[in-house]
């Protein structure tokens, strides 16, 4: 039987205390911060520029080089980074995405930061898991399947996924689990890999849903609670939850290796269906069978 999970109330920092997704400067100029972080990751040679890195005091491209590659003036690009230019065209943003060698998801994030993508309205049904999707979870009898919301909280899970996450009690927000629950290091064998993957996916969603109070509150909370989260969030890197290999060390069944596929829920923007499957005939498959039998009603 599929259990629809109740997502606990987020512990949102008191606005009077000043906590937010970033400090005031970063919050008011997320586009500039993202551009600066992105150009710092592109070396001149990778962008087809001669001269190498000799004599450079910092890594990455200079502002002037990004401007040349994107076909805009150096002054205009500087104003974009500084937040003095707030209305770039789609053509300019597209050119910057190419100049900075951004992956498709990062380019999408750039467009959204520039205000060039539609935002979800306040009445979006993204926090509801459609009954047909709940029924679909039941069909994955030998896989761990669950639905994530925009703040990467598990909205619904099949019995196997529920059993895999049982060491964390009732907490089902994955960023909070990874960064604040000491058991996460024991359960996730590749814990450090999961940290960066989680933060980059959360930042991608923060760009997609900039007015989402749950994401904003979660980020404020974790920036306060976890130095590791603060450092990864400051990277301004984005990546979606594509195919992933995850290793669990469950207290009941031991090591479980799963390959996850992620599917966007088209009629509920922000929701994603994740399905983790083991190699046929493997010990991990046996472990999932055992977990499924434990979850069956007596």
From TrEMBL:
<dbReference type="GO" id="GO:0003677">
    <property type="term" value="F:DNA binding"/>
</dbReference>
<dbReference type="InterPro" id="IPR041413">
    <property type="entry name" value="MLTR_LBD"/>
</dbReference>
<dbReference type="Pfam" id="PF13560">
    <property type="entry name" value="HTH_31"/>
</dbReference>
<feature type="domain" description="HTH cro/C1-type">
    <location>
        <begin position="56"/>
        <end position="107"/>
    </location>
</feature>
<dbReference type="InterPro" id="IPR010982">
    <property type="entry name" value="Lambda_DNA-bd_dom_sf"/>
</dbReference>
<dbReference type="Pfam" id="PF17765">
    <property type="entry name" value="MLTR_LBD"/>
</dbReference>
<protein>
    <submittedName>
        <fullName>Transcriptional regulator</fullName>
    </submittedName>
</protein>
<dbReference type="InterPro" id="IPR001387">
    <property type="entry name" value="Cro/C1-type_HTH"/>
</dbReference>
């Amino acid at each position: 039987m599929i259990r629809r999970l109740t997502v606990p109330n987020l512990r949102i920092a008191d606005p009077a205390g000043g906590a937010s997704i970033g400090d005031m400067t970063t919050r008011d100029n997320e586009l500039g911060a993202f551009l600066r972080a992105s150009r710092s990751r592109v070396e001149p040679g990778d962008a087809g520029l001669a001269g190498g890195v000799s004599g450079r005091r910092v890594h990455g491209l200079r502002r002037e080089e990004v401007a040349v590659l994107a076909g805009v003036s150096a002054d205009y690009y500087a104003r974009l980074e500084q937040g003095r230019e707030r209305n770039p065209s789609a053509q300019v943003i597209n050119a910057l995405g190419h100049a900075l060698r951004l992956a498709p998801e990062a380019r999408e994030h750039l467009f959204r930061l520039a205000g060039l993508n539609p935002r979800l309205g306040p009445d979006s049904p993204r926090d509801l898991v459609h009954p047909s999707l709940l029924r679909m979870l039941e069909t994955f009898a030998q896989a761990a399947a669950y639905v994530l919301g925009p703040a990467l909280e598990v909205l619904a899970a099949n019995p196997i996924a529920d059993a895999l996450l049982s060491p964390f009690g009732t907490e089902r927000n994955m960023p909070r689990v990874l960064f604040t629950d000491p058991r996460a290091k024991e359960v996730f064998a590749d814990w450090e890999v999961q940290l960066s993957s989680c933060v980059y996916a959360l930042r991608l969603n923060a760009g997609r849903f900039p007015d989402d109070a749950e994401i904003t509150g979660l980020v404020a909370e974790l920036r306060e609670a976890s130095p590791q989260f603060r450092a990864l969030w400051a990277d301004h890197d984005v990546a979606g939850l594509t195919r992933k290999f995850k290793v669990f060390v469950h207290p009941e069944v031991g090591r479980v290796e799963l390959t996850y596929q992620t599917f966007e829920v088209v009629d509920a923007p922000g929701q994603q269906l994740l399905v983790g499957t083991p190699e046929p005939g493997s010990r991990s498959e046996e472990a999932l069978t055992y977990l499924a039998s434990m979850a069956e009603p007596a």
